[in-house]
Write a structure and sequence with these properties.
This protein is mostly helical. It is built from ten helices and no strands.
């Protein structure tokens, strides 16, 4: 996909202005290879999930769960009795590994865990877990983990971006 096609595509998907400006002049392959924003990369994969050559929603959720899980020690240190983020991540992982269609019980657990985690969305790990559990905007996991690790956001996102490139295959 050349740079013009990519811009049209990102606008059609309603990508954020910052991402559209950053990608200007880059082909899709150049943008994917140079991007240091795991949150943007996961967002795009989520929007394209299920299309030929793109990762499945389950693959994306598993990556997001791994990112969110990295924030858990920080969250649990501050809130040792609050197990909702962990349960939300576990439910999301169960959903992803079961083929995303294991019946009403798994869906019920997933909704309950996501709702519980969403109640504490102000906390970084809970925010990440809720989105991972819901399987939407999985990119929030990288941003939440960045805050939880107390590293510079850019460093963590770059580290996660490299991991996204290793774990999720996208078309040229």
């Amino acid at each position: 996909m050349n740079s013009k096609e990519l811009l049209v595509h990102l606008r059609a998907l309603r990508a954020c202005r910052e991402a559209v400006e950053w990608v200007n002049g880059k082909s899709f392959r150049q943008a994917w290879d140079q991007c240091d924003r795991a949150d943007w990369m996961l967002w795009l994969c989520g929007r394209m999930a299920g299309k030929p050559g793109w990762p499945t929603r389950a693959e994306i959720v598993l990556v997001a769960c791994d990112f969110a899980e990295r924030a858990l020690p920080h969250f649990e240190k501050k809130y040792p009795d609050d197990k909702r983020p962990r349960k939300a991540i576990e439910a999301a992982r169960e959903w992803a590994k079961s083929g995303a269609a294991s019946g009403q019980d798994a869906a019920k657990k997933l909704r309950a865990a996501a709702a519980a985690a969403a109640a504490d969305a102000y906390a970084a790990a809970a925010y990440a877990a809720a989105y991972a559990a819901a399987a939407y905007a999985a990119a929030a996991a990288a941003a939440a983990a960045a805050a939880a690790f107390r590293k510079k956001k850019e460093e963590v996102l770059k580290e996660f971006a490299n991991e996204v490139r290793k774990r999720l295959t996208v078309p040229d």
